[in-house]
Amino acid sequence: MKRREFIQTGAVATAAFSILPTGSLFASTNGKVRLGYIGVGARGMSHISEGLLRDDIEIVAICDTQESSLKICREKIARSGKPAAKEYTGGTDAYKGLLDRKDIDAVIIATPWQFHHPQAIDAMKAGKYVGCEVIAGLTVQEHWDIIDTHEKTGIPYMTLENVCYRRDVMAALNMVRQGLFGELVHAEGGYQHNLRNVLFNDGKHYSGGGVEFGPKALSEAQWRTQFNIDRDGDLYPTHGAGPVMHYLDVNYGNRFTSIVSFSSKARGLAAYVEELAPGNANAKINYKNGDITQTMISCANGETVMLTHDTHLPRPYSLGFRLDGTKGTWMDVNNSIYIENQSKDDEWDPAKVWLDKYDHPLWKRYEKDAAGAGHGGMDWFVFNAFVESVKQKKQTPIDVYDSITMSVIAPLSTQSVTEGKTLEFPDFTRGKWKTRKNTFALDDSGF
Fold it and tell me: How many CB atoms neighbour CB 438 within 10 A?
């Protein structure tokens, strides 16, 4: 399927491009981007699907430690009629063989969280653009490592945070930039998603059907559940933090300055297991991660932010976005907007009326291209933005500083809960936030 290309019309903030290495980076010919995939499980397969739909993508190589994932990927590529990808497997360092190839321009990393940090660093050192699934690292130091490697190599790093491209999120961003909410004073977001049937399954299906995790399970239950046993804090902050950062121009004339988190008691996962399998040993585990973690963040320009992590309790999916400004409010859970002097006094308007009216130009232009893509189309937008950055030799629209700022909330939250105190938020831009200009989605170019 042919895709129309994004057009670069705005200023792009670049970082250390004068020291980009020669060789494989940007060596594409005929307008094609040659991709390597590290991790082709459920999430990696979604990115494979996006790549197979495009004529400007060559899937050169894939890497995974599990033959079951490689087999599914291999068969999917064959059905598409595209050439087979070279496979790398074996131990957890098999990806290094993929990175040694000179015919790969960029990598998509979709492995378990604990592998993102070393794989991304090795990829940047190998001269490959990095598109990495969340989160970037497990410790604050690992986040600094990625910043340092980027600044030494000049290689772009982009967290593939798809919610930044969600349609209502982008419409709200359009409204913010047109002043509909006035001056923003507070923003909320988060990850409120019942993941119990993701964290446990029967070892035969990706979702549900049993109460196993670890080696006896499949997909994310093999590794993600253990984080809920070992850590207490906001384990997955970027879905809420990414869009909020764009609303508040964080890293672009504004920044996060302090952070504090509080967690509730942990009861949801044990109760879930006990209900499905009374007496099962997994119901007796001391799950450390509180069922609800709330994180408050202060900003240099005086705004406050609240993020909520809620994945262990029965509830419909919602990211809980809320914007409060001097002229109005948006709440996605309530599906409502109120704009002073335009809404009826003391009455909510249906959000759809406003979000349709201020639909972002990016969605207006590429709605048909994104139709059928994962997560309501936003997977196409984030994948396309990364690919076009590589193709056009541009900085990614979500750059390394944005990526690391939204991701580091995870270890900072854990530290705050453990120590019971407010922490200073690191300035990963080293002061550059004061003069950087926000170029994210200013028009329909994707940049």
Answer: 18
Q: Are 305 and 297 in contact (CB under 8 A)?
A: yes
* Cα 197 from Cα 142, distance rounded (Å): 30
> How many CB atoms are closer than 10 A to CB 77?
19
Please, what is the average pLDDT of the chain? 93
C-beta atoms surrounding 333 within 10 Å: 13
Element (H, E) at 148: helix 140-153
* Residue 373 pLDDT: 87
> How many Å apart are CA 107 and CA 84, to the nearest integer?
17
Specify which residues 190 forms β-bridges with: 308
**Separation CA 126–CA 205 (nearest Å):** 36
* Cis amide leading into 339 (omega within 30): no
If residue 248 lies in a helix (H) or strand (E), which one and from where to where? helix 238-248
Contact 10, 447 (CB under 8 A): yes
- Across residues 43-49, what is the average pLDDT? 96
Asked whether 119 and 221 are in contact (CB, 8 A), the reply is: no
Check pLDDT > 60 for residue 328: yes
Summarised one tens digit per residue, pLDDT across range 389-424 is 999 999 999 999 999 999 999 999 999 999 999 999
